[in-house]
């Protein structure tokens, strides 16, 4: 994911444990600068087109475009292709952006134009909602364990356990999952963190004790031991975490709907690219496709990316009977799409949706994309090692 994202070092620096601390903010700056630099972007497109053009015929087939489509999906935060029907249709739409839904091959100029639009869309999204890269080396966890707030928080975690007969191992595992990046704890449910941080730390505790029912006193004592073990593991193996927070409150839709010129231009663009019959009509089924194409302009995530927002969109479709399968003309299609946006806006204004995500970057970033290598981010991560 990070290989698509421009980054900048934040101005926040401090000292903990005698070491200078840094975080990196991915705000789309490098993407924007690349696309806006005509000479650099031309060189970039030439190089990437050549990499994708396996048979060197000067065109990209649908098969040759697949690595680019997959990378864009990863950068958008979508699950891998084939794992979710909801997100798979977004991958299809990305491919259709390149092929216009008709062509079997794409020229370099077409590839350049679509890639430019997609990257600038990503840059705009990151400018609005930057991703913060955090290096977790155990210092924040240590500070938490040694602070006065550790005991009440630990006891509060234990009191929320569903069963009094749970094993100590289960209680400790649940306890770790209650800690956040604010405590300096990487996501304890991540498979890499489990294998490399949590399990080795648990192995230092008494095996017999771990399988016995946990009392409050035992939990408190062993939880502290476990966190001290995790501190040591993080000092030896720092973890890089990509942290993102986002609130969907309908304000982006409201801005779009209040600007008639921009709204009409966007509706025209969306309608122009949709398949139509001989009477210039199209099925309502394409309303979801159209809404996805307008999502970035309305500050909405792609359908399939955020379950809570998907539920709001689904409700809006029900309210205007958008899934009845009827074939409509341009005016009716645009009217219905505008009504859907209005319904989504009202729902989000009444009940804003806030999400926070933490992704562990536990593999070399160079391998995460074939399109936009991250020359500076990897260096910045290694600086603190």
From TrEMBL:
Region (Disordered) residue spans: 1-23, 364-385
Chain ranges of the EF-hand domain: 40-75
Keyword Calcium: yes
Cross-referenced PROSITE patterns: EF_HAND_1, EF_HAND_2
Signal peptide: none
Protein's UniProt name: EF-hand domain-containing protein
Keywords: Calcium
Residue ranges with Low complexity bias: 366-385
MF (Gene Ontology): calcium ion binding
SMART domains: EFh
Chain ranges passing through the membrane: none
InterPro entries: EF-hand-dom_pair, EF_Hand_1_Ca_BS, EF_hand_dom
Zinc-finger listed as a keyword: no
Pfam families with a match to the protein in the record: EF-hand_7
Protein species of origin: Cocos nucifera
